[in-house]
């Protein structure tokens, strides 16, 4: 117990010496499932914030609310079905960023790390058929011009969207890949 308290105290004191920036932002998401060539890319939204801890190399934890998914179109017994696979999620990002350019007015960075989406609600597919936690590998880059920040990231699906007890018409091992374009402020 004493070791854990000491470790926590060291971590908090290290944060006090690190540069800390807050980055609230909003963005558009473009997502597509991996297994069905007839589905379309769905445009949706994401909003939240992250913290940038460090200088040239940053630890970037973030908390977001978003809507991801894709419109499914499939044929079963010669009937065509359309399903709005829209999923509301809480997203936890733990990224590592490296600033390739790091001046007061201009920063160009590359980011990578894991992201975890917790499913809150699914619009047309029962929530029991969607996994509660879906893992992604997030990578991309961004630019800060003064206090304005612009990011383009790709979330590569690592785990299936659907639960093993999922629907019979959708492949269980279906992953979601998401392109994210966001703008925000950094201070």
CATH topology assignment: Porin
β-sheet strand percentage: over 45%
CATH top level label: Mainly Beta
Structural class: mainly beta
Q: Indicate the percent of residues in helices.
A: under 10%
Describe the structure in brief:
The protein has 187 residues and is mostly beta strands. Helix content is 9%, strand content 65%.
Give the SSE map.
Elements: H1 2-17, E1 20-33, E2 42-54, E3 57-76, E4 79-102, E5 106-122, E6 133-145, E7 148-157, E8 176-185
Antiparallel strand pairs: 1-2, 1-8, 2-3, 3-4, 4-5, 5-6, 6-7, 7-8
Keywords:
single chain, 187 residues, mainly beta, Porin, eight-stranded antiparallel β-barrel, 8 strands, globular
What does this structure look like?
With 187 residues, the chain is mainly beta. It has one domain: Beta Barrel (Porin). It is 9% helix and 65% strand. The protein has an eight-stranded antiparallel barrel with strand order 1-2-3-4-5-6-7-8. The longest helix has 16 residues. The radius of gyration is 19 Å and the shape is globular. The protein starts with a helix and ends with a strand. The model has no long low-confidence stretch (mean pLDDT 86).
